[in-house]
Specification:
By secondary structure, the chain is an alpha+beta fold. It folds into 3 domains: 87 residues, Phosphorylase Kinase, domain 1, CATH 3.30.200.20; 181 residues, Transferase(Phosphotransferase), domain 1; 131 residues, Sandwich (Jelly Rolls). Helices cover 33% and strands 21% of the residues. The chain has 11 helices and 18 strands. It has a 6-stranded antiparallel beta sheet, with helices on one face. A 4-stranded antiparallel beta sheet has the order 11-18-13-16. Helix 4 runs antiparallel to helix 6 and helix 8 crosses helix 9.
């Protein structure tokens, strides 16, 4: 069996100008991996050797640093005079390139979800001092061919903005470069914002915004011209999405999105304003993320922990009059009010009214599922709730669990203070 280092080689996945990518198997970790290996001839000292080694070292340097559910994880690397390869997480669903031509364009709701997750992943990289610098459809991988979960790959062209004072020019894909990139000006995260805008433009229309006959012509258009609006190519492009693409691709940095948060917020708002949600019972991941991020309870949770909750939480829409929890019955779950109102009732006496951001049923955590509910919770109007079951929380990361327990202690302290105030007022 052919091997690269300790890894068994299953098959060739793809080949580029500088490297080949193989599907491998790690017999120690018992998992499939993707292995990017420099072509052997590039190991000999040439004008390009230093550049290719630099790019592989960039990826290797990120091993264990960019821990995010939407960024490909780097597991291992070997870079010396005899061999050069990087071992990374295998993502089986192909790339976004498959959906960049007319006839294969994605539904708007799926497109928005994908771009939203890209913005959050690239914001995480930015907060770690990393600018990708080569965002394009080929570097956005799908976890499944029909799903909307993604992972951003290939940080070989990345710059570490916190420490790098010089930037190697000529790295990146010309069609997706920002105006400041083609002018070889200093770069920051806004170059990635522009490039992701180009990706979104292509996913909306099936075309690139500029189509020069050569790289020089392409660079001139990027630096000096404005692309045709997406709706002039595809008539049904929603104006909200066209406005987002336009702002992301502004040549003038002052007019472009200044932060990833602004970009992702507009995507989530566009989803809601266009009513792109096809299933009212199950909101899109972008809306789930935005709702939780806005609540005070989750203020200390990292984006990574919010994504955990998006994945293991259960989202329900309940009708007015629905009893969500019943006094005296056991339960091993707790809930958050996402929108709407509920009332807490004990022996027919109203104890409290809950609204968006409030939690209830959290004492189930401390009774290990054996405690009975001490009051009933009823919906007073149509209400959306997030349910989290104790077994799911126990499988969450330790940091996620810690933030939940800390949050519940704050809630308990607040309720005790309120109860004391009421008693004192009697």
């Amino acid at each position: 069996m052919e091997r690269i280092g300790k890894y068994e080689i299953r098959r060739l996945l793809g080949e580029g100008a500088s490297s080949s990518v193989y599907l491998g198997f790690d017999p120690f970790a018992q998992r499939e991996v993707a292995i990017k290996r420099l072509h052997p001839e590039l190991l000999r000292v040439t004008d390009h050797t230093t550049l290719y080694h630099h790019m592989l070292l960039n990826e290797a340097a990120l091993a264990g640093k960019l821990q995010h559910p939407h960024i490909v994880q780097i597991h291992d690397a070997v870079i010396d005079d005899r061999d050069a390869y990087v071992v990374m997480e295998y993502v089986p669903g192909g790339t976004l390139e498959a959906f960049t031509t007319e006839g294969r364009l994605l539904p708007f709701e799926r497109l928005v979800e994908i771009i939203f997750k890209c913005t959050r992943a690239l914001d995480h990289a930015y907060l770690q001092g990393v600018t990708h610098r080569d965002i394009k459809p080929a570097n956005i991988l799908l976890t499944s061919p029909t799903g909307q979960d993604i992972k951003i790959s290939d940080f070989g062209a990345a710059i570490f903005t916190a420490t790098e004072t010089t930037q190697i020019s000529g790295i990146g894909s010309p069609a997706y470069m920002s105006p400041e990139q083609v002018r070889e000006q200093p770069l920051d995260h806004r170059t990635d914002i522009y490039s992701l805008g180009v990706v979104m433009y292509q996913l909306l229309t099936g075309r690139l915004p500029f189509a020069g006959s050569n790289n020089a012509s392409m660079a001139y258009q990027i630096a000096h011209e404005t692309p045709p609006p997406p709706s002039s190519i595809r008539l049904d492009v929603p104006p909200e999405l066209e406005a987002i693409v336009s702002r992301a691709m502004q040549r003038d940095l002052a007019s472009r999105y200044a932060t990833w948060h602004e970009f992702s917020h507009d995507l989530a708002q566009a989803y809601r304003s266009r009513n792109l949600v096809t299933d009212r019972l199950e909101p899109p991941d972008s809306e789930k993320f935005e709702r939780l991020r806005a609540f005070r309870f989750f203020r200390e949770f990292s984006d990574i922990e919010i994504w955990e909750i998006v994945r293991f939480g259960e989202w329900h829409l309940v009708a007015p009059g629905t009893v969500v929890m019943k006094e005296g019955e056991p339960g091993n779950y707790f809930c958050f009010v996402i929108e709407g109102k509920l009332r807490i009732v004990k022996k027919r006496h109203l104890l409290n009214v809950l609204s968006a951001g409030d939690c209830f049923g959290e004492m189930a955590l401390f009774s290990a599922g054996r405690g009975a509910r001490t009051a009933s919770v009823e919906a007073t109007d149509e209400t959306r709730i997030l349910t989290i079951r104790a077994p799911a929380l126990l499988r969450a990361s330790s940091l996620c669990q810690m933030h939940f327990y800390k949050g519940f202690l704050e809630v308990l302290a607040s309720r005790l203070s309120l109860a004391n105030s009421r008693i004192a007022g009697i």
